[in-house]
Design a protein that fits this description.
427 residues, alpha/beta, Adenylosuccinate Synthetase, Chain A, domain 1, Adenylosuccinate Synthetase, subunit A, domain 2, Adenylosuccinate Synthetase, Chain A, domain 3, ten-stranded mixed β-sheet, 20 strands, globular, binds guanosine-5'-diphosphate, binds 6-O-phosphoryl inosine monophosphate, binds magnesium ion
């Protein structure tokens, strides 16, 4: 059986967690392949709310094996807090597998994330402050600490020493902070080793065997296309590959195994943190979307910036990820509007752009060109078939489908697991 990739089409928080959870019972393995506890996925099951950060959303499905892939960065304190929180609520987390090659977020990288942001001042990225960027930077500069390192104290000490050699200079000389103790860092990381050991596996191998045995494997992205370090609005991005390509490097599954790419697109747009956002609304409509859509960060509680849907971004997501199916979420939030504007292109210095501009500076001052569609008033939260939707809501979805260039296979009409319209099977 082939592998399926699930990604966010915009700037995150599209409802990836809900979509993964929706497919949960048909999927044997759910693999988180990038990011760390910067992610926040809210999933509502029978009215009960779960907020996941580091664990794959498949953890809420009893039949599913959740996997943290090699592309993820792990804060072990957060991992065990999240596991304990779920266990206390009756969720079985015992099947969780963790890649031996995943990198660990050392405590000094959490500190570095916060001090660099402060240092950047008005040029800050608006990170989640979880140590994500510095940990990926260590991985790339080959001074990172991996899961497997905490099972060999000698190696761990050497690696922490090597990492702190430079960092302690920076802490003292640039950031005016106390040096970080090698011994305290080693002791903290070692304190998790016994509990972590039984979960650690060669996850790439496990997944290869699962695929050979005909199992369904879902590769679930954190963050989203425009937050991807290569394809997003750099430098206002996260530090990993959140697009479909990252699913292969971050899990050890080869591209030839992937048969389908599902992208989640919110019926409007949101963004947390700094960076360009052409359709952002600074008026009452923005406030309406934030209030009605409950657009406050699952991880940091920050109010999300809100705006109309941007199909230039949607088309870009289709191209970069090779999207085969879209899930449009939060259509219910648009209920009650007289008209719904859809961004179809940008105007940049008097020139129309139907595709993402090449230059980042152009994107920063792109003005959206809108097409305005008629709204609908009827409550759609109980609709379960496409035909049940009011004609104007159907027309909105069909127009988006046309503009983003891949079929819309499911539509979210509420936060609950059941609040979904399936037009084409996702599996
Ligand atoms: P993720 O990071 O992509 O998993 O998304 P988040 O969980 O951060 O944000 C999506 C929010 O929208 C969550 O609070 C979900 O419960 C909620 N949600 C998901 N789908 C729908 C939908 O179709 N309608 C409504 N009203 N809420 C939804
Ligand atoms: P999910 O998986 C929305 C944003 C941060 C910041 C930038 C870099 O829930 O969609 P980082 O801490 O990753 O170095 O921050 O990326 N960001 C997200 N925004 N949803 C997320 O995750 C995000 N993860 C990171 O706000 O702008
Ligand atoms: Mg989120």
């Amino acid at each position: 059986m082939p592998a399926i990739v699930l990604v966010g089409a915009q700037w995150g928080d599209e409802g990836k967690g809900k979509a993964t959870d929706l497919m949960g019972s048909d999927v044997d393995y759910v693999v988180k392949f990038n990011g760390g506890n910067n992610a926040g996925h809210t999933i509502v099951i029978d009215g009960e709310k779960f907020a996941l950060h580091l664990l794959p959303s498949g953890i809420l499905t009893p039949t599913c094996i959740p996997v943290i892939g090699n592309g993820v960065v792990i804060d072990l304190a957060v991992l065990f807090q999240e596991i304990d929180g779920l266990e206390a609520r009756g969720v079985d987390t015992s099947k969780l597998l963790v890649s031996a090659n995943a990198h660990l977020i050392a405590p000094y990288n959490r500190t570095l994330d916060k001090v660099t942001e402060r240092f950047l001042g008005s040029r800050r990225i608006g990170t989640t402050g979880r140590g994500i960027g510095p940990t990926y930077a260590d991985k790339m500069s080959r001074t990172g600490i991996r899961v497997q390192d905490i099972f060999d104290e000698g190696i761990l000490r050497q690696k922490v020493e090597a990492a702190l050699d430079f960092k302690n200079q920076a802490f003292a000389k640039i950031y005016n902070r106390r040096a970080v103790s090698v011994e305290e860092t080693v002791a903290e990381l070692l304190s998790y080793a016994d509990r972590l050991r039984p979960m650690v596996a060669d996850t790439s191998r496990v997944l290869e065997e699962a695929l050979d045995a005909g199992k369904n494997v879902l590769l679930e992205a954190g963050q989203a296309t425009l937050l991807d370090v290569d394809h997003g609005t750099y430098p206002f991005v996260t530090s990993s590959n959140a697009t479909a390509g990252g699913a292969c490097t971050g899990s050890g599954i080869p591209p030839t195994r992937v048969s389908r790419v599902i992208a989640i697109l919110k019926a409007y747009s949101t963004r947390v943190g700094e960076g360009p956002f052409p359709t952002e609304l600074h008026d009452d409509m923005g406030e309406f979307l934030r209030k009605t859509g409950a657009e406050y960060g699952t991880t940091t509680g920050r109010p999300r910036r809100c705006g109309w849907v941007d199909t230039v971004v949607g088309r870009y997501a289709t191209r970069i990820n090779g999207v085969t199916d879209f899930v449009i979420t939060k259509l219910d939030v648009l209920t009650g509007l007289e008209e719904v504007p859809v961004c179809v292109a940008y105007e940049i210095d008097g020139v129309r752009h139907d595709q993402m501009p090449v230059g980042q500076s152009d994107f920063h001052h792109a003005k959206p060109i809108y097409e305005t569609l008629p709204g609908w008033w009827e409550d759609i939260s109980a609709c379960r078939r496409f035909e049940d939707l009011p004609p104007n809501a159907q027309a909105y979805v069909l127009r988006l489908e046309e503009l983003i260039g891949a079929r819309v296979s499911a539509i979210g009409v509420g936060p609950g697991r059941e609040a979904i319209i399936e037009r084409h099977p996702l599996l």
